[in-house]
Each structure stands twice: as structure tokens, then as C-alpha cells.
Design brief:
The complex is a heterodimer. Chain A is α/β, with parallel strands linked by helices. Chain A is about 30% helix and about 20% strand. In chain A, strand 2 and strand 3 form a beta hairpin. In chain B, strand 5, helix 8 and strand 6 form a beta-alpha-beta unit. The chains are: A alpha/beta, B alpha/beta.
Chain lengths: ~190, ~190
């Protein structure tokens, strides 16, 4: 009994008077450890690198049919440089306010407007809110801004939205930090 | 347990798609959209300098689209029309079309490591030379022979790319009667 017992399944070599049999059992624990490590790795990497897609539909260019829109349903969002968002309701460019992309910023603005629209016009036949969001992008905005706004629109379940060009009066308002001089007399 | 774990391991290794080496670095923005991107997709990428690239996910389609470019615009690009079958086969391996059409014959022969170092100028997309529009038209013709409903466009822009470049791409797509498309983003929260 001076040698080390290499057999893991004890009791097998007890009656061995002939020659000592080497055990054929191999310890599998490290291999299983490694296998599980690899499983974990592949599971995590496969689900993480999958790109997801957002749908975006643009109006047809020959679609000249103008839709009449109630001013009270409209929320205008303007993306400016340095991650600044300007927004105003309806046609009141003079009431330009500033917000940001955080969940307490733009999302709350949209939700607040949704509540207002719901209180005024109620939900439509499908039970959706009737808010209309118009997204406008200044030339200094970047692509992430656009995706972020579209994402917020998606999160707040806004069904009617459009990407539009900036009007001159909006440009002027932004350039003056939210103040419209031509409206000052009003 | 050992058997099961190895079975799982094999499964995940086989299903794992290695991320293709990016020829043009593009950092996509994040969103909470959960729809998976389709497998058969034509992706128009816009990098941070505003250059446009086109990628076709299925190699077989790449050849079909090239044939249409030659059929429709071959007179404009005689050197592309004169490409040998071997060069066309090499074109099928190009994941990304990022050069003006007339430069295609030079690019197809490059090895992967040479492509990595190649500085892609992008596909011209301004109104004087709207090659991006020609590619989109060619794609429409190519898919029309199979099933036009399978044709799906996606825009993949860099986070910091200027909005004007992306809007120009959207404008080109609208000119070619593509009004509905996907925007490729990564899932918010993943650091990818």
C-alpha cells in the first residue's frame, strides 16, 4: 500500500492478486467546466451581435393629397446640433422650448402632449392616440438624433408622424435661441 | 450531463455567425426596436464622413444585380461590361460595394487583406452622378425577376454621420420609388 491509488472507482481492484490494473476512468470535470464556459460564451455572443431593424415609411413624392390636420393635435420636434431638441405645439413657433434625449426629456414631452390630445379629441377607432408628431432636422443634427427621436416615437406608441423640412420661421427661431422677432409684437 | 452540454456547445458553435469583418467602420446607433433584420437585405451604409456604400446580404443576388447594372448602364461603363466571368465571380464575394462603378474591375481582384487596407471612396450619390440610384434600380430589376416583395432596403448609418448625407440617401431611394425601408440599429443596452 505504498503506491498512490489512481483508481477513482474504489473497491474494484480489491481482489486483484495478479497485477494491479490501471483505472480507465478519466476525470471529466475540467472538460465539462470548459464546455460550459464555451456554451456561455456562445450563448451570449449570438444574442448580442444581432442587429435589429426599425421600420420607416416615407410619403410618396407624387402624393400631393394634402391632409387637413387639427392644429391642436400637432407636436413639432426639431433636432438641433449638440443634442438639443426644440419643440412646440401646433403652430406656436413663438412658444419654442428646449428639451433633451433623456427618458425624462423628450419622452415626457410626447406623453404630456398625448394626454392633452386624448383629453381634447379622445382616442380614435382603434384606440390609438391621435397625436401627430412632426420631426424636423436641422443640417447640424446627426443621424443618431434622428434614430433617437424615431425610437421615442415608437416607445410612446405614436402612430402618426412625419419627417419634414424646416420652415424659415423655425430656422429663425432656432438661430435666435427660441425667440421669434417677427412675432414679438403679438 | 456531459453529453448534453457538448450537444449544446456544438449547436451554439454551428449557429453562431461570426461577425463579418467590417470593411468600413460604422458605429450604429441604439434603439429599443426588437424586430430582427431580415436575411435577404440590401443595406445602404452611410459612414461618418457621409459616404454611401451598398451591401447585399446574399452573394447570389450580388451577381444578379451586377448583370442588371451591365444590362442597363453598360454603355456608360464599358470596362464593367467587359468584365470576365472570373471577375464577376469575384464580385460575388464582395460584401460591400464602396467604389464608383467604373472602378469595380480594379477592386474585384484584391485579396481580403488588401481590401482591409483599401480606402473606399463610397458610391457617388449627388445629382450629377447618381450611381447609388443606378444600383437601386438594378436591384429592383434583379429582384423583379424573382419576387419584388423580397426586396428590402435598409439604412445603416453611423451615429455621428451628418443628417444631410442620410437624407440624401433617403431622397435617392424615394426617387427610385423606394418608400419603405428599415433602419438598422443595435439593441439598447448591449455594448455592441
Amino acid at each position: 500500500m505504498a503506491d498512490i491509488d489512481t483508481s477513482s472507482g474504489g473497491g474494484k481492484g480489491k481482489g486483484g492478486k495478479r497485477s494491479k490494473k490501471m483505472s480507465t476512468r478519466v476525470d471529466l470535470t475540467p472538460m465539462v467546466d470548459l464546455a460550459f464556459l464555451l456554451i456561455t460564451f456562445f450563448m451570449l455572443t449570438t444574442s448580442m451581435s444581432k442587429p435589429v431593424a426599425m421600420d420607416l415609411a416615407m410619403p410618396k413624392k407624387d402624393d400631393t393629397k394634402k391632409q387637413d390636420v387639427k392644429e391642436s393635435k400637432v407636436l413639432n420636434i426639431i433636432c438641433d446640433k449638440d443634442d438639443v431638441i426644440w419643440y412646440y405645439e401646433g403652430l406656436k413657433v413663438a412658444g419654442l422650448k428646449k428639451t433633451d434625449y433623456s427618458s425624462g426629456g423628450l419622452r415626457q414631452v410626447i406623453l404630456k402632449k398625448q394626454k392633452k390630445v386624448d383629453a381634447m379629441h379622445g382616442k380614435d377607432d382603434k384606440g390609438d392616440t391621435q397625436i401627430i408628431v412632426l420631426v424636423k432636422l436641422t443640417d447640424d443634427a446627426n443621424y443618431r438624433n434622428m434614430v433617437d427621436v424615431l425610437d421615442e416615437i415608437d416607445i410612446t406608441d405614436t402612430k402618426i408622424y412625419a419627417i419634414q423640412d424646416l420652415s424659415d420661421i423655425e430656422k429663425e427661431a432656432i438661430a435666435n435661441g427660441g425667440v421669434v422677432k417677427s412675432f414679438a409684437a403679438e | 450531463m456531459c453529453d448534453v452540454s457538448f450537444l449544446l456547445l456544438t449547436f451554439f458553435i454551428l449557429t453562431a455567425k461570426f461577425r463579418p469583418t467590417q470593411l468600413v467602420p460604422i458605429e450604429i446607433p441604439t434603439s429599443r426596436a426588437e424586430k430582427n433584420a431580415s436575411d435577404d437585405l440590401i443595406t445602404i451604409s452611410v459612414d461618418k464622413d457621409g459616404n454611401a456604400y451598398m451591401g447585399v446580404s446574399i452573394p447570389k443576388r450580388r451577381g444578379e444585380i451586377l448583370e442588371k447594372v451591365i444590362a442597363k448602364y453598360g454603355e456608360k461603363y464599358p470596362n464593367v461590361a467587359a468584365m470576365t466571368p472570373a471577375q464577376k465571380a469575384q464580385f460575388n464575394n464582395l460584401e460591400l460595394i464602396g467604389v464608383p462603378i467604373q472602378n469595380l474591375p480594379q477592386i474585384v481582384g484584391l485579396k481580403p487583406e488588401q481590401l482591409q487596407e483599401y480606402k473606399f471612396p463610397g458610391i457617388p450619390k449627388d445629382s450629377t452622378e447618381n450611381q447609388l440610384g443606378e444600383w437601386i434600380m438594378a436591384a429592383r430589376y434583379a429582384y423583379a425577376e424573382d419576387d419584388i416583395n423580397k426586396l428590402k432596403f435598409a439604412i445603416k448609418g453611423d451615429k455621428s454621420s451628418n443628417i444631410k448625407a442620410v437624407q440624401r440617401v433617403i431622397e435617392v431611394m424615394k426617387e427610385k420609388d423606394v418608400y419603405s425601408f428599415n433602419i438598422i440599429t443595435s439593441l439598447e443596452g448591449s455594448n455592441d
